[in-house]
Write a structure and sequence with these properties.
Elements: E1 3-8, E2 11-16, E3 23-28, H1 35-45, E4 48-53, H2 57-60, H3 80-98, E5 106-112, H4 114-123, E6 131-135, H5 144-148, E7 159-165, H6 179-192, E8 196-202, H7 210-221
Length: 222
C-alpha cells in the first residue's frame, strides 16, 4: 500500500488504497493533509482515503451566485453544478482507475466549511456518494437553508454526519452566527425525511481541531 499522487486538471489528489478495499472516502479540503494521516486512516478503516485539493474554494463549491461574506469580499460565483459534473464524470473515475478499482466502491464525501455545504447540496442532485460528512458546513449561505428545507430526501439511502463547533453560533459576523440555527433546522428536516443523521456539537470554533474532526467524520461514515 502506498500513497498515490494524482493530478487531474487543476485538482490534486493524494490517495491511499488498502488491498481489497471496497469503500472510499473523498475529502474536499482547502489545504494539504499530512500523508501519514491518509495512510493511517486507510489502514484503520480498510478504505481508500483520497484528499482532493486545488478547486476554487469560493466558486466551485457554491450552488448559486451570492454576495460575498464578510461584506466587501468578492461575490461567490456559484459554480458547484459544473464542479460536481467534473468530479463525478471525470476526476473521481480517473482516480479510481489509477488506484485499481475495477468496480465502483461505496463512496463517502467529506466536506469542511464551503465543501461541507457542497457535500450536502450535491446529495440533492446525485446518488454518486452514498454517505456524506459535513464539518462546519457553511449553511449560512444566502438562501440555502430555506431552499434545502423544500427538498425531498424520502428515497435517500446512506448516512449523513454533521458537526459544528460550539463557538461558531457566537461568531461576531451576524451572517456566520446563523450557522447554528441553520444546521439544527437542516438536521431536523433530514430526520423527518427518514435520513440517517448524526449531528454532533463539539468544542471549538470554525478552524480548531481539524484532524480530530476529520477522524470523527471517517469513524461515523466508513
Amino acid at each position: 500500500m502506498k500513497i498515490e499522487k494524482i493530478s487531474i486538471g487543476d485538482l490534486d489528489c493524494l490517495a491511499c488504497r488498502p488491498d481489497n478495499a471496497r469503500k472510499a472516502a473523498y475529502i474536499l479540503y482547502p489545504m494539504d493533509i499530512d500523508p501519514a494521516f491518509i495512510e493511517t486512516a486507510a489502514l484503520k478503516h480498510g478504505a481508500t482515503i483520497a484528499v482532493i485539493t486545488g478547486m476554487d474554494w469560493d466558486d466551485d463549491l457554491t450552488p448559486w451566485p451570492a454576495a460575498g461574506v464578510p461584506e466587501g469580499s468578492p461575490d461567490f460565483k456559484g459554480h458547484a453544478p459544473e464542479f460536481l459534473n467534473a468530479l463525478v464524470t471525470s476526476a473521481i473515475p480517473e482516480i479510481e482507475s489509477r488506484i485499481g478499482f475495477a468496480d465502483a466502491p461505496t463512496r463517502t464525501l467529506v466536506g469542511v466549511s464551503l465543501s461541507g455545504l457542497f457535500a450536502l447540496w450535491q446529495w440533492t442532485q446525485s446518488d454518486f456518494f452514498r454517505n456524506i460528512a459535513t464539518l462546519s458546513g457553511s449553511f449560512w449561505y444566502d438562501g440555502f437553508e430555506p431552499w434545502l428545507l423544500e427538498q425531498s430526501f424520502a428515497d435517500k439511502a446512506g448516512h449523513c454526519f454533521m458537526l459544528l463547533g460550539d463557538a461558531e453560533p457566537k461568531a461576531k459576523n451576524p451572517t456566520f452566527a446563523t450557522v447554528g440555527a441553520c444546521t439544527e433546522a437542516i438536521a431536523a428536516h433530514l430526520r423527518t425525511q427518514g435520513v440517517d443523521v448524526d449531528f454532533s456539537m463539539v468544542k471549538g470554533n470554525h478552524y480548531q481541531y481539524a484532524r480530530q474532526r476529520l477522524e470523527m467524520a471517517l469513524e461515523k461514515t466508513l
